[in-house]
Amino acid sequence: MTRSGRPSSVGRPERAYGGLPDGRASRVSVAFGRMTSSVGARFLAGSAALAVGVCCVTPASASTHGHAAAQAIVDGFTSAGAPGAMVYAQDRRGRWSVHSGTAELGTDRPIRPDDRVRVASNTKMFVATVVLRLVGEGRVALDAPIADYLPGLVRGNGYDGARITVRQLLRHTSGLADYVEDVLSDPTSGDHPWRPEDLVAVGLSHPPLFAPDTGWAYSNTNYIVLGMLVEAVTGRFVGTEITDRLIRPLGLSRTSYPAPGDKAIPGRHAHGYYAFPGRPVTDVTELEPSLPGAAAALVSTGEDMTRFVRALLSGGLLRPDLLAELRMTVPADGTDYGLGIREIPLPCGGVAWGHAGDMPGFDSFTAATRDGRSAFVVVNGHLTDGSTADVRGAVGTALCS
């Protein structure tokens, strides 16, 4: 199987793609950014016995009910076996964060709001925003078939790129099968760079999940294809487009889209931990970024992620008509899904908008409301008691504090 550091298709939309990688392993249940189930009501209840680790409260009091509830949640995550957890939020009273556990096993250093982490499928909000910017420039049409931009990429085994549109890829109604479970079942898959077309081929080796626009299923393959679309239209690496259009203008100084081969997280960062089946807990901080690619490669911080999502929802990044397109949703797996973003009902009423990011080592969620509240939650490892970290619930608690 051919693998290289940069997609050879960049700037050459006429290329025909094909070929199935050999040696696929058995599948495991891991995905980037799929919605997670609740860890249990016990993490939502306040507990006076819990030690409160609150920092960066400006100017609101750290002892408010909302912050205590958020503290109880992150303490619950670490009590259930996660190495560390952190909530960072901003509301009309200021910025605040709570933390529990450690950013690195063997130390007492907490995860901080400016610590870099892998934000996994939060990347999809950035990719969707770039695609919509290209729509605004007249270079991409939402309802055009992907075959217009990447001829021959999506075909065979029941797939037809002439029937799958850019909009369907953005909102996961394309029917493309996910590549992630196949490649993550191979412990050596992260040892080398991948070409995006090879990741797509892994997904397309499985039959379509449904006919285009007749169902909804979360598939990272959609966003690998969208990253290739950005590269075909612009002639530049998708990470460069994200950097020049979003990261640099917003001053997201601790956010980066790593190039293939850049496995380490730069600067001060939290470590990520994961227990693969039959193996002990492992430090999985280093990762070959071309494996998650445009579906989940981004590195960022709580501070940067909340700044981005506030800018997005306030209209600072997209024209009003394109922001409206972003928020046009379809029913999904417990929430409604727009173009690279989820609509999230809040426990205090109203909704927020954001995305989850779930990969081995890091589980996160970013969300904001249209009135300017924002929150980011990260857990740097799985829960050893067998439950699942309810990062979406933690975000809801923070936004309703």
Automatic annotation (TrEMBL):
Region Disordered, residue ranges: 1-21
Keywords: Carboxypeptidase, Hydrolase, Protease
Pfam hit, one: Beta-lactamase
Domain Beta-lactamase-related: 73-379
A GO molecular-function descriptor: carboxypeptidase activity
UniProt protein name: D-alanyl-D-alanine carboxypeptidase
